[in-house]
Amino acid sequence: MNPETPYARLSPDRVLDAVDACGLWPDGRLLALNSYENRVWQVGIEDQPPVIAKFYRPGRWSDAAIVEEHTFAQELADAELPVVAPLAFSHQTLLRHEGFRYALTPRRGGRAPALESVDQLQWLGRLIARMHVVGARQPFIHRGKLDHDTMVHQPMRAVLDSSLPPPSLRDHYLAAATRLDAAIAGRLQAVGPVRQLRLHGDCHPGNVLWTDDGPHFVDLDDARSGPAVQDLWMLASDDRAMQALLDGYQQFRDFDPTELALIPALRAMRQLHYAGWIAARWHDPAFPAAFPFAAESRWWEQHIGDLHELSDELE
Fold first, then answer.
1. Residue 34 pLDDT
2. CATH topology classification for 118-314
3. How would you class 185 by CB atoms within 10 Å of its CB: exposed for 0-12, middle for 13-18, buried for 19 or more?
């Protein structure tokens, strides 16, 4: 498998064959879903609901880390939380077919949450608190942490090792990212140690689907250890929304209010990581097609300006 184009051999027939190898009967209906880090398909099954087939990017997570994610998802489901956990076949959730690692999950549809609704925010806060009660029971061993190296230093190196920033802006990017790196470190030091627990890790509105029965959470691919506030801040557009989330959250779990001071640092880390993620994956043909703006000078000019604005907020 070529690491530059890891999915070149993942044809529709191979997707169907992988599902068939689990003892299911694909009916030939395939729908590619919106995913860049991995490849995800909805697969129709004869006389049964469709399943979701997720093919993992080679080299991103170890087998042990993927199994740890699956185990966490099942723990949450066993605690009657609305989390979509992988299906097991012969007691295995991490599956292999022709060199690809993959997992199958039930299809769970839904719509975006109404984040202007206090009731829905409180509902989400209660569910996230219950997720964190489970997440705090034991640590992740293999999935790593939401830390400075993963979210700041590695993405910076990926950008500087790539050809994406134009030569005239590379020094400006380095100066802006280095300034933000120091500002993030200063904020983390000022806040001091906070409790780490197993998180969803990427709890943004796109990973919450709402039905008439309420919300459910999908895609634990970024699950890792970190502070509780990481699973809250991306759902809160302002202080009012954050208070509604916390009103629900604190019905089931205490929240350390000092973590709120981490939000600007977490937002800045996400910005740095986003640019580094695109740069690190640029060899994958899906990325230039999906993110063509990353090859344009004006996007890097804007990104550099955003990094300075984030530094201003933190300093």
1. 87
2. Transferase(Phosphotransferase); domain 1 (1.10.510)
3. middle
